[in-house]
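User: My advisor, Dr. K., asked me to get a structural model of this assembly before our group meeting. I'm new to this, so sorry if the format is off. These are the inputs:
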Amino acid sequence: MFIPHTPEDKKEMLQAIGVGSIEELFAQIPTALRYPAFNLPAALQEQALTRHMQELAAKNKSLLHFIGAGCEEHFIPAAVNALSCRGEFLTAYTPYQAEASQGTLQTIYEFQSCICELFDMEVCSASHYDGATALAEACAAALRINNKTKILYSAGLHPHYKEVLKTYLKHVPGLQLEEVPLQNGTVDLNALKEKLTPQVSCFAVAGPNFLGQLEPLEDISALVHGAGALLVSVAKPLALGVLHTPGQYGADFAVAEGQTLGNAMNFGGPGLGIFTCKKEYVRQVPGRIVGIAKDKAGKRSFVLTLQAREQHIRRERAASNICSNQALCALNAVIYLTLLGYGGLREVAELNLEKAHTLKDMLAADGHKLKFDGLFFNEFVLELNTPAKQVIKKLAKKGIAAGFDLGAVRKEWNNCLLVCVTETKTQADLEKYVQAMRGF
Amino acid sequence: MQEIIKQNALSIEKSRPGRRGVRFEKPQNTPEKYIPARYLRTHTPRLPQLSELDTVRHFTNLSRQNYCLDSHFYPLGSCTMKYNPKAYDVLSVLPALAQAHPFAPQEAVQGTLEILYNLQELLKEITGMSAFTLQPAAGAQGELTGILTARAYFDAQKDKKRTEVIVPDTAHGTNPATSHMAGYSVINIKSGPDGCVDKEALKTALSDKTAVVMLTVPNTVGLFEKDICEIADMVHAAGALLYMDGANFNALIGVAKPAAFGVDLMHLNLHKTFASPHGGGGPGSGPVGASAKLAPYLPKPLVEKKNGKFFLNAKMPKSLGRMKAFYGNIAVCIRAYCFLRQYDEQTLKDVAENAVLNANYVRVLLKDAFPAFFDAPCMHECVLTLQKDKMNGVRTADIAKRLLDYGFYAPTIYFPLIVPEALMIEPTETESKEMLDLFVQAMQRIFAEASQEPSMVHEAPHNQPVERIDEVSAAREPNLRW
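Assistant: The format is fine. Below is the predicted structure of the whole assembly, which you can bring to the meeting.
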């Protein structure tokens, strides 16, 4: 498949090489290891493959989504994929030969710029695998900066982010990871104050947090910095169309999942790990960064820069082993942001805010109870009379993805459902949801 | 006209206040209705303001400043730039697949889960490994997953004395960086005169402190480790594990199964061997395979099947934990599944065989101008070097730039580190003989230019959107954003 050689081609090539058969070229592999049996299904030509994939896809059920929890459905203007699917972007490799890769390099520079503007941060990398790994890498960077021995993280982080953080950092010698509890859905500031000892390297906090609640990030920032620690925040990029920015509240590192900027959900992957920081920490940034350079004639051009941080040069002394970025997802994000501009982004953010609050009000008017009474952006928690697990099952039968079962995170939250509303929902969708939730 | 229309203007430089691409319905209320001022953004970000057409032209014109596989031969060694079938672009993002949510009720995502389960099974079959996780987002994350799996295994055995990972000097920089991230110290060993692992050096390095030996197979000079089984025995006799970096699996697919070499852990790069596009640097996907005794330590979850239903099983008590928020780069995995379904037991070997044929063809035709560093048949890529006395001061970097002028992307250069002035060429199985002949001609012409008009090579490229870039100028005073 996709191999162009005719039998004559092969004959001529083998002759040129001076061997009688292709198998001779594999003589380095011990005979006993060569050509084992493979048990594989029948090969499919394109037409049959297409049918096969359509049949598999048809086993998925299309749902009206009210689930967020780290991956959200948003409207993607057609121009985003039309542009990013161009072979010139899609089938290029990492821009090692900068002169023949100016397109990819400039889009990454523009991505870094747009994200810096949106986050109010000074530096943005070319991107990471996803929000969770970006968070882990930011905490690792904080440790390298101040050489302390403890990382505090908020109980309000996405539960999977906490797990990734532990996976990435559990082998750092002498490091302690400690959770700061929540109080009524947001960081318990008294507990945070107590835990902010001189050994603390950084505090990792999400705002809005996993429960959808906004955090008093200015207050948190003051406490953290007052204790000589660094602030690592997990932001929600679309929310920054209206909400206070990491730069505004003084985050040292701000990371995020950028899937919501023009990327489909794809069952959670690929994601887009956004990694930003203050300028003074640029040499601790793991992974690629694009910068402006000059060519021989003095013309502005773009290159991968500050590579002395990276694994191919520093090997075991590198900041990280990362050697790729999510270039295509970053491209989707920068096209999305360019199409929308701040005006469009603000509209999307306001619509998320408004529709989520409208649904909350409609549900409250229908007798439902909110678990927390704090501020939220586009996600909130319902406390039901029925286990959330059952509600999700029942609504799925009606074609609705009801939300995320918080019982999976904490047993006493068995009846709690995390609901997400984005700009994609119409008033009729909201009414359908309220109707379906009646009685739970 | 080229002076009038500035092709490489930034989007922000084309921006006009009030212009807009996409509009949404008007919100009824301002955010202040819901959120107090201290939680709101205080100033306007400088995002571009362009019409949709402006945006389309901006990115279309930028795309035209890229060399890519769809337009150019891309012989970038170790990157396996093979053709990315267009069908997979469509099939991997069928709406029902693209719109699947990772926390959707499992009965609503049976199609996605079935594809992932099938892919896990296929990867097991072609490598012989007992289990596969699709979770890692890239090859480097696959390596980290593999080494952390080994570490979880040793920790479970209460074997605390193993603190070292052995890595040959030909390894990708990711191998030592990965070992360090997993908390191991790195022992580098020299390669032998034949380009393969020096068994004596390995023997000396191995001890009861060795946790893992990381080998790239075929290695980065394009050679199969001929003593792989013996090496595996030595590693196992020391109580350590053998990790195989499968970045170069395109040389082996359909021809050999790594499990039979004695490999305990390995990763594959779906964006290399399995034909998914590189996207300008990612997303990739780096699934990790494990032997039966290591399988329980893989990251959670795995896709499993019970009573005909597929589900994500996160109940893995010995698991090392989670590597990323959600299970794998799914859109990339689906393409790899499509790729594997287009081959059967008879045809799968055609991939490796033709990849190896092409690499050797280029190696032999370029022998007089650019000899292979190790004069032996190679696998899927050949590593060439310069004859210093014939190059007139022309260096590998110059050749790379000059190739761009002739319409070819450059090979990987200056890697592996043990080869001086290295040119690492990987043609892949999807290139035709005619294309390889053209590439060889271009290389031979550059070789002739080196003696006849070296300035043409020194000053290359001559026909790219920009002239040779001074990369140091970017690091001096970094400008990383507008």
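One thing worth pointing out at the meeting: Residues 41 and 49 of chain A are 12 Å apart (CA to CA).

User: Perfect, thanks a lot.
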